[in-house]
Amino acid sequence: GRTFEDGDDPRWTAHVGFPDTNSQVNSYSDLPEFATTSNGMLQMKAAARQTRLVYHAGYGWESATRGYTTQMLQGWNKFCYTEGVLELSAQLPGRAHQSGLWPAAWLFGNLGRATQKNSTEKLWPWSYNHCPDAADEEANQYVRTQQVINACLGAEFTDQYGLNPNQGRGAIEIDIIEAMPGNITFEYQNTKVAQGLCPALSNDTYQYIEPTLPMVATSLQLAPGIPQWADQRPMEKKAPGDLANCFPNFTYQWYPELELGGTVGANPSVYG
Known about the structure:
Layout: E1 13-14, E2 26-28, E3 35-38, E4 41-44, E5 51-56, E6 61-66, E7 68-70, E8 73-74, E9 104-108, H1 117-120, H2 143-146, H3 155-159, E10 173-185, H4 188-193, H5 203-209, E11 212-221
Parallel strand pairs: 2-7
Antiparallel strand pairs: 1-8, 3-4, 5-6, 9-10, 10-11
């Protein structure tokens, strides 16, 4: 089968190291044991295996250990595309109700590299070339300070690096699938009703507003997002008995200007 050590494969590279972007307790290995192909399918493995890393921390040598080893494959700097359709067929690992794993498949702009935080700082998840007026900054999430190379810097700045005049640089993220195993239910009765923040609801309603694990998430992570003044979702104001601030009306379209037709279905995490 194919192997993915650096230089082995023209499309994919197995990541190596100790990621710290999401408080992981695993290390990444490029050994074929953890990522290879068989019968035309990719096979990946996670194991309870301790890995030790020795690194220079600027003031001297340090070491760290992690109790689990797994793999991440990246196509960074090997192939990109600007449009198209991506299809994925996968059997996810582990048991649905046993937490600990976070299997995922996602796309990321090639200007940044996943798990390398210095490469994504003030770059992710921007996709923006406009320089807003100062009065409109909140609506655009303060582009001058949050996007490191932005249209507000002017043509002279971008030209010295061979970039297009006034062009912002960013890397968005498209999460195709993120599986979140576990056995957790958000208890509306205990956290909202019992605290006197919201009125009691019918049993039929709770199923729509109590997100549970396991679950699967897909998302487009992109900035700028919806500004605060345009956010029409109901926001909890901790006003006892104020029904409008406690749970959404699932038959109502919260963003009528974005309506594609009819009303939207229930979404327990993002109303609308």
